[in-house]
Design a protein that fits this description.
By secondary structure, the chain is mainly α. It has a single domain, classed as Ferritin (Up-down Bundle). It is built from 14 helices and two strands. It has helices at residues 13-16, 19-34, 47-66, 68-72, 81-106, 112-120, 138-155, 164-192, 196-215, 227-232, 240-258, 283-293, 297-310, 312-327, and strands at 268-270, 275-277. The chain is globular and about 70 Å long. It starts with 12 loop residues before the first helix and ends in a 7-residue tail after the last helix. The structure holds Phenylacetyl coenzyme A. Phenylacetyl coenzyme A (FAQ) binds at residues 55-56, 59-60, 63-64, 67, 94, 125, 127-128, 143, 147-148, 151, 154-155, 215-219, 224-227, 230, 236, 240, 290. Keywords: Oxidoreductase. Its EC number is 1.14.13.149.
Length: 334
């Protein structure tokens, strides 16, 4: 990889755009990525690689932060102290994931403030899944089992992403997501084995979250604008459809163990393919949610904007504290 230092050049692609140097930098970058070397923040990288990473990492970070809302909705109504403590820890973990990812995105020269401004202005996306409501306590279990399960399936390969800071952030995130998935599974198992009403509540939650969970993996491969380039750059290691299939294959036996039915009569094992076949996804619904027309889009973004405004005093206080201690030369304690 070409380390960019004052001696070897500058990180501005504009400087390298013309002539041999640009070609050499590009060739060296492509060769390093093909050889599975990690790209680090001070290495030269094509502008489009940087922009694509910022796009994906920002969307990922925003998803973690907005994703706190549906489950936080149930913290005050968790059915026991144990469940409440677990749920609070999970929601806090999601905040932490967002912060790791904003920090990783900052290494690409974009500030967290800038990314948040874009989210609040509707210029950057967050995952479609968080635009659905959590109507019952069982939804907390369905999110853990299905949404975190889908998130892990998608994110484990990102631990091998070509961009170092993103790959390293994902290692810790995936460990925590595994705990989240297990807690959701365990919660649903308790409900499924409970009273008839509890079992019905678990089934209803799975009925509502199954299809949106499959949509989390993104559009079908032939409609995925970014997959080919992101896979060539080894940002993505598998296509949207490959990961969706992997998730279905994992979820089917888990649903059986839970004693719950997946709401798709077309799911069946295909011996020839060595995978489960499954029914058609309603892509019109997916694109509609992306356009802002899901059941909770407006509520989610309004709540996010309000939380940001209400947190202004915390940011101001932290900045004033840092300024005071920097100007007096004293160390700022974390
Ligand atoms: N929702 O060309 P592609 C979590 C957009 S974290 C919204 O296939 P790409 C943890 C896409 O951005 C969940 N938009 O895009 C948790 C693009 O639009 P653009 C988030 C979507 O990037 C659990 C357009 O459609 N995970 O759940 C979605 O190659 C529980 C065309 O799509 C990540 O972000 C979608 N589902 O592949 C938290 C993982 N899918 O940008 C709380 C990292 C696609 O041109 C509670 N991201 N779009 O305007 C990825 O792996 C990829 O970005 C994909 C999309 C696979 C999501």
């Amino acid at each position: 990889m070409v380390a960019v230092t004052p001696e070897t050049g500058t990180s501005s692609t504009a400087d390298a755009r013309s002539g041999d140097l640009a070609d050499q930098l590009r060739a060296s970058f492509d060769a390093a990525v093909a050889a599975e070397e990690r790209v680090e923040p001070r290495d030269w990288m094509p502008d489009e690689y940087r922009a694509s990473l910022v796009r994906q990492m920002a969307q990922h970070a925003h998803s973690e932060i907005i994703g706190m809302q549906p489950e936080a909705n149930w913290i005050t109504r968790a059915p026991s102290l144990r469940r409440k403590a677990i749920l609070m820890a999970k929601v806090q973990d999601e905040a932490g994931h967002g912060l790791y990812l904003y920090s990783a995105a900052e290494t690409l020269g974009t500030s967290r403030d800038e990314l948040l401004d874009k989210l609040h202005a509707g210029k950057q996306k967050y995952s479609s899944i968080f635009n659905y409501p959590t109507l019952t306590w069982a939804d907390v279990g369905a999110i853990g089992w299905l949404v975190d399960g889908a998130a892990i399936t998608n994110q484990v390969p990102i631990c091998r992403c070509s961009y170092g800071p993103y790959a390293r952030a994902m290692v810790r995130i995936c460990k925590e997501e595994s705990f989240h998935q297990r807690q959701g599974y365990e919660l649903l198992l308790a409900l499924s084995r409970g009273t008839e009403a509890q079992h019905a509540m678990a089934q209803d939650a799975v009925d509502r979250w199954w299809w949106p969970s499959l949509m989390m993996f993104g559009p079908p491969d032939d409609e995925s604008a970014h997959s080919a380039q992101s896979m060539a750059w080894r940002i993505k290691r598998h296509s949207n459809d490959e990961l969706r299939q992997r998730f279905v294959d994992i979820a089917v036996p888990q649903a059986e163990s839970l004693g719950l039915t997946l709401p798709d009569p077309d799911i069946k094992w295909n011996e020839e393919r060595g995978h489960h076949d499954f029914g058609a996804i309603d892509w019109a619904e997916f694109w509609d949610v992306l356009k802002g027309n899901g059941p909770c889009n407006e509520q989610r973004i309004n709540q996010r904007r309000t939380a940001h405004e209400e947190g202004a005093w915390v940011r101001d206080a932290a900045a004033a504290y840092a300024e005071k201690h920097t100007s007096t030369g004293r160390e700022v304690q974390a």
